[in-house]
């Protein structure tokens, strides 16, 4: 059996994701689709709309055959690290191809961009450092360096537009695969209708996850997002709403985040991953002065710190993810199974002796610092969702077995 790998967050799963999963299988001629999915905290530094178990269930009912968890250390990191961890897991799972959505919609432009930066070498890295030292955010510094390299390039043919969010991730997926000499074939399909940050538009069946979440939080009703999701995914959101006090976002989590910041103080905040350049003092003052997340972010946002970079800091503060902890998690060391279909089970049975990393189906049966932190992060997420009350589902990762869809 052949597997096509995809890298996802499903925050939440929508019709565009269904299209991607189907096209990944068709385009690559695969028998199964394996999704490496972020856990309860995401790459842009946000709590997930619903937990990983609900999102895995949505995926398995809508075209995905195996869901593996991307460990916290990679799921909440910058694009290169996020891509590196995810690609290593897909390679370890013996995927023959990986398929990503992009604004460009064709692989050749990404291959030319990889060649461009390979040729630019140290000059490119130095340009990035110089731009950051002038006060540019890291993403803008990367884009400036890339544009300068492209303007002086003799490579024939169009390059990937690395100002677009899905193109950026796609570039890093291909870079990560090249760096580990993976035999997986890279395939991309164009995003259709809605782009990464587009609002949800009534009557249009495709909307971005960002637009769907915005629409829900503005209306506080699932009725406003019905058109954008498969029925089975929407049913799982209704189930979540019936069982939990809220959906995941920073305004919901802020009371506990604020408590954590004020309890830790600047000295200990400086030990948290991604907290740099004395910003711990600003974070502490902003938490002391603001009772809302919106007010807090207004006080700490600046040109130097993007919204995403700040949110990653807050995610690490909330979970207690320090520089020391991150330094011990350089590469994935296991495949954490969240769920599978009957076809996915057949694939794993056929390939289990060839998997490059151990497959973990029971959290209690495997001891590993990265897995321990994933379980801790799941508990912290449960506290945030349940507002620290008796409804908080602590220990869910120890008590939940992989989902099986027949």
From TrEMBL:
Please list the residues that bind ATP: 7-20, 101, 166, 191-192
Record-linked Gene3D superfamilies: HUPs (3.40.50.620)
Alphabetized InterPro entries for the sequence? Rossmann-like_a/b/a_fold (IPR014729), tRNA(Met)_cyd_acetate_ligase (IPR008513)
Pfam families membership: HIGH_NTase1
Q: Which catalysed reactions does the entry list for this protein?
A: cytidine(34) in elongator tRNA(Met) + acetate + ATP = N(4)-acetylcytidine(34) in elongator tRNA(Met) + AMP + diphosphate
The organism's superkingdom is given as: Bacteria
Arranged from A to Z, the UniProt key words for this protein are: ATP-binding, Cytoplasm, Ligase, Nucleotide-binding, RNA-binding, tRNA processing, tRNA-binding
Q: Which residues form the signal peptide?
A: none
Instruction: Write down the EC number.
Output: 6.3.4.-
Principal subcellular localisation of the protein: cytoplasm
Asked if the Swiss-Prot or TrEMBL record annotates the protein with the keyword Nucleotide-binding, the reply is: yes
Cell compartment(s), UniProt:
Cytoplasm
Q: NCBIfam families annotated for this entry?
A: PRK13670.1 (NF010191)
Its family remark reads: Belongs to the TmcAL family.
Function description = Catalyzes the formation of N(4)-acetylcytidine (ac(4)C) at the wobble position of elongator tRNA(Met), using acetate and ATP as substrates. First activates an acetate ion to form acetyladenylate (Ac-AMP) and then transfers the acetyl group to tRNA to form ac(4)C34.
Task: Tell me the protein's name.
Answer: tRNA(Met) cytidine acetate ligase
């Amino acid at each position: 059996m052949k597997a096509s790998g995809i890298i996802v967050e499903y925050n939440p799963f929508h019709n565009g994701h269904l299209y991607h999963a189907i096209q990944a299988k068709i385009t690559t001629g695969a028998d199964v689709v394996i999704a490496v999915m972020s856990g309860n905290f995401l790459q842009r530094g946000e709590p997930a709309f619903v937990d990983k178990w609900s999102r895995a269930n949505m995926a398995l009912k809508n075209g995905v055959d195996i869901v593996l968890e991307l460990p916290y250390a990679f799921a909440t990191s910058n694009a290169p690290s996020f891509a590196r961890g995810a690609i290593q897991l897909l390679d370890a799972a013996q995927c023959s191809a990986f398929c990503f959505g992009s604004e460009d919609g064709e692989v050749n432009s990404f291959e030319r961009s990889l060649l461009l930066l390979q040729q630019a070498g140290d000059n490119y890295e130095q340009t990035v450092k110089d731009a950051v030292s002038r006060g540019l955010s890291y993403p803008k510094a990367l884009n400036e360096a890339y544009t300068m390299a492209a303007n002086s390039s003799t490579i024939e043919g169009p390059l990937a537009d690395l100002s677009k969010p899905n193109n950026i991730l796609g570039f890093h997926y291909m870079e990560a695969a090249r760096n580990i000499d993976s035999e997986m074939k890279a395939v991309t399909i164009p995003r259709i209708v809605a782009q990464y940050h587009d609002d949800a538009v009534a009557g249009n069946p495709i909307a971005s996850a960002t637009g769907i979440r915005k629409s829900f939080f503005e209306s506080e009703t699932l009725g406003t997002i019905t058109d954008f999701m498969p029925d089975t995914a929407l049913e799982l959101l209704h189930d979540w709403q019936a069982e939990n006090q809220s959906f995941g976002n920073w305004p919901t989590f802020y009371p506990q985040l604020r408590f954590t910041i004020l309890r830790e103080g600047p000295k200990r905040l400086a030990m948290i991953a991604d907290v740099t350049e004395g910003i711990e003092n600003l974070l502490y003052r902003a938490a002391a002065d603001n009772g809302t997340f919106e007010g807090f972010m207004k006080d700490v946002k600046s040109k130097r710190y993007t919204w995403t970079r700040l949110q990653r800091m807050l995610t690490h503060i909330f979970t207690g993810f320090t520089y020391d902890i991150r330094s011990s998690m350089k590469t994935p060391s296991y495949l954490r199974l969240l769920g599978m279909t009957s076809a996915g089970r057949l694939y794993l049975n056929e390939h289990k002796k060839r998997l490059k990393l151990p497959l973990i189906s029971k959290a209690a049966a495997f001891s590993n610092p990265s897995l321990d932190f994933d379980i801790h992060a799941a508990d912290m997420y449960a506290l945030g969702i349940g507002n620290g009350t008796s409804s908080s589902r602590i220990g869910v990762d120890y008590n939940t077995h992989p989902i099986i869809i027949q």
